[in-house]
Design a protein that fits this description.
The protein is α/β, with parallel strands linked by helices and about 450 residues long. The chain has two domains: about 5-220, Spore Coat Polysaccharide Biosynthesis Protein SpsA, Chain A (Alpha-Beta Complex); about 225-435, 3 Solenoid (UDP N-Acetylglucosamine Acyltransferase, domain 1), CATH 2.160.10. The protein has an eleven-stranded parallel sheet, with helices on one face. A hairpin with a 5-residue loop joins strand 8 (about 140) and strand 9 (about 145-150). The longest helix has 21 residues, at about 225-245. The model has no long low-confidence stretch (mean pLDDT about 95). Bound molecules: uridine-diphosphate-N-acetylglucosamine and calcium ion.
C-alpha cells in the first residue's frame, strides 16, 4: 500500500451562507459536509488525513474530535496554496491528495482513478467541462493537448475565458513535488493570493506531466458557497439515493419526496409513500409498507409490517407483521413481537409488546413488559415516573386492561387478569382476577333536573 496523505481544505469563512456555523459543518443528508469528505477519504485508506482550519477552527476541532485527523491552522486565508502549505510539515513522503470540505459529493472511485495516475513523472488533476465555466479556474492545454497551466477567472484573458474545461481544485502529486513547488508560489495575481493552481505550470515547466481525470457527473465536484447550492446538492444526493433504492426493487410513491439521512436497507417489495424521512440505520423487511409522512430512525421493521401515516419511530425493533399508527410514536427501546399492534396517538418507550398484543388508541406505555395477546384499552397510561425514578409495569399474557386505566408502577398485572375501565392500579393484580378501582355508580331514580329560576 502506498503512503497517502489527504489534505482537506476547510479554512474558508463561507460568508454567503450567512450563518454562525462554519460552512463545512452544515449538513447534507443529515451529515456535515466535511464528514462526507472524511468518509470518502477514509475509503482510500490514507496514512494520514489533515484538515486545514481557520474560520470557526475551535468549532471544527470539537466537531471532528472523534476522528483520526490532524489539524493544520491557517490563521489568515491567503489562498489555497497557502492553505495546503500549513499542512506541509505534517506530510509523509508518499502521495498527497487535496480535497475540499465544501465539495461533499466527491466519489471514492473518481479519486482512486486520479491517484492511480500519480508518480514522480506525473501529477493528477481532476477537471470538469461545464456549460457555464464562470468563476472557475480554466485548464490551459498546449498544442499537444497536455495541461500546462490553470488560469483563474480573474486573471484570464478573453481567449482563456472561452475555455470550458475547469479546475475542480482536486489534485494529487507526490509529497516531494508538492514540497518543491509550494515555496515557489507567489501572490502576484489579481486576488493577491497564493494559488495552489500555480503548481500546474511548475509541473509543466519541470517536465512533470499533468494527468487529468473527470468525475462521473458534475455534482461530484460541485462546491457549496450558499444555501441555494447546498439545497441543490441535497436534492441531487436524495435523487441518487432514490434511484439506488428503486434499482434494488423498492417502490417509491414519488422519488422526489423521500429523504434518506443515513443508510436505508430494504427487502423485496417495500413500498414507501411520500414525505418519509429515514435517519441513521434503518432496515425495512420484505413487503413493509410505509405510509405518508413517517419519520423512522435507527430502527428495524420486520417483514410485512405496515406503518401508517404520520408515525414517528426511533430506535425500535418490530419483529414483523406489525401494524403501527397512524400517528404512533415509538420511542427508543420499543420492541414489538410478531403481530403486535400500536395504533393512533399511542406513545411507547422502553417497552416490550408481546406477540399479537394490541395498544390501539391514545395510550402511553413506557418501561413496560407486555406478554402475548394483551389488550390495552384506549387511554391507558403507565405511570412509570414517580418524579425521581422510573419503574416497571408488567402485564401477563392474555390480560385485558380496560380503557382509561392508570397503571402506577412498579406494578404487575397477572396472566389472564382483567382490569375494569377507569381503574387506578397501584397494587399487583393476581392472575385471572378482575380488578376495578372506580367508585360505584350512584343512581337516583326519577331525578328531576334543576329548572331555571324565575327573575
Ligand atoms: C478554487 C480554484 C479554482 C477552481 C475552484 C473550484 C484556486 C486558486 N482556485 O477557486 O481554480 O476552479 O476552486 O471550486 O485554487 N480555502 C482555504 N484557505 C484559503 C483559501 C481557500 O482553506 O486561504 C478553502 C476554502 O475554504 C474553499 C476552498 O479552499 O473550501 C476553495 O477556495 P475558494 O476561495 O472558494 O477558491 P475559488 O476561488 O473558488
Ligand atoms: Ca469556491
Amino acid at each position: 500500500m502506498q503512503d497517502l496523505d489527504i489534505v482537506i481544505l476547510a479554512a474558508g469563512k463561507g460568508t454567503r451562507m450567512r450563518s454562525q456555523l462554519p460552512k463545512v459543518l452544515h449538513t447534507l443528508a443529515g451529515k456535515p459536509m466535511v464528514q462526507h469528505v472524511l468518509d470518502t477519504a477514509g475509503g482510500l485508506n490514507p496514512s494520514r488525513t489533515h484538515v486545514v482550519i481557520g474560520h470557526g477552527a475551535d468549532h471544527l476541532r470539537e466537531a471532528l474530535a472523534e476522528h483520526n485527523v490532524s489539524f493544520a491552522l491557517q490563521e489568515e486565508q491567503k489562498g489555497t496554496g497557502h492553505a495546503v502549505a500549513q499542512a506541509q510539515p505534517q506530510l509523509g513522503s508518499g502521495i498527497v491528495l487535496v480535497l475540499y470540505g465544501d465539495v461533499p459529493l466527491i466519489r471514492r472511485d473518481t479519486l482512486a482513478s486520479l491517484l492511480a495516475q500519480v508518480d514522480e513523472q506525473h501529477m493528477g488533476l481532476l477537471t470538469v467541462t461545464l456549460d457555464d465555466p464562470s468563476g472557475y479556474g480554466r485548464i490551459v492545454r498546449d498544442s499537444d493537448g497536455h495541461a500546462v497551466a490553470i488560469v483563474e477567472q480573474k486573471d484570464a484573458n478573453d481567449e482563456q475565458l472561452k475555455i470550458t474545461e475547469c479546475n475542480t481544485g482536486i489534485m494529487a502529486m507526490t509529497s516531494a513535488q508538492l514540497k518543491r513547488w509550494l515555496p515557489q508560489l507567489s501572490a502576484e495575481n489579481a486576488q493577491g493570493e497564493y494559488y495552489l493552481t500555480d503548481v500546474i505550470a511548475m509541473a509543466a515547466s519541470e517536465g512533470v506531466k499533468v494527468a487529468t481525470a473527470q468525475p462521473h457527473n458534475a455534482t461530484e465536484v460541485e462546491g457549496v458557497n450558499n444555501r441555494s447550492q447546498m439545497a441543490r446538492l441535497e436534492r441531487a444526493y436524495q435523487q441518487q439515493m432514490a434511484e439506488t433504492l428503486m434499482a434494488q426493487g423498492v417502490a417509491l410513491a414519488d422519488p422526489a419526496r423521500i429523504d434518506v439521512r443515513g443508510k436505508l436497507t430494504c427487502g423485496h417489495d417495500v413500498f414507501i409513500d411520500v414525505g418519509c424521512v429515514f435517519e441513521g440505520d434503518v432496515e425495512l423487511g420484505e413487503g413493509v409498507r410505509v405510509g405518508p409522512y413517517c419519520i423512522i430512525k435507527n430502527s428495524t421493521i420486520g417483514a410485512e409490517s405496515e406503518i401508517h401515516s404520520h408515525s414517528v419511530i426511533d430506535t425500535t425493533v418490530a419483529a414483523g407483521l406489525n401494524q403501527i399508527g397512524p400517528y404512533a410514536r415509538l420511542r427508543p427501546g420499543t420492541r414489538l413481537a410478531v403481530k403486535a399492534k400500536v395504533g393512533n396517538f399511542v406513545e411507547t418507550k422502553n417497552a416490550d409488546v408481546g406477540e399479537g398484543s394490541k395498544i390501539n388508541h391514545l395510550s402511553y406505555v413506557g418501561d413496560a413488559r407486555l406478554g402475548r395477546d394483551v389488550n390495552v384499552g384506549a387511554g391507558t397510561i403507565t405511570c412509570n415516573y414517580d418524579g425521581v425514578n422510573k419503574h416497571l409495569t408488567e402485564i401477563g399474557d392474555n390480560a385485558f386492561i380496560g380503557s382509561n386505566t392508570a397503571l402506577v408502577a412498579p406494578v404487575t398485572v397477572g396472566k389472564g387478569a382483567t382490569v375494569g375501565a377507569g381503574s387506578t392500579i397501584a397494587k399487583d393484580v393476581a392472575e385471572h382476577a378482575l380488578a376495578v378501582t372506580r367508585s360505584r355508580q350512584l343512581e337516583k331514580p326519577d331525578w328531576p333536573r334543576p329548572v331555571k329560576k324565575a327573575k
